[in-house]
Amino acid sequence: MNVYLELTKRFNAGRLRSIICSGQAAVLHRVAVMSKDGDWILHEDEEAHKAVCEAADGVLPTTVSTGEGE
User: Fold this and answer.
1) How far from the centroid of its chain's Cα atoms is residue 44's Cα?
2) What angle (nearest 5°) sits at the alpha carbon of residue 38, between those of residues 32 and 42?
3) Would you list the domain boundaries of the chain?
4) How far apart are CA 27 and CA 19, in angstroms?
């Protein structure tokens, strides 16, 4: 399984919190052959943010942004 699908599966353990989008979504739908990045749209609540950060801890090289203050 590719890393983007594995992360999406981890993010959504127990309930739907995220959907994959952008380049990797195009690859999954076979509109593109490859993409170097992964983007997700998260459910806008504190539990979803916390669960996704915990699932990504140690897997992703960067921190997950809240979008606040950017």
Assistant:
1) 13
2) 120
3) 3-56
4) 14
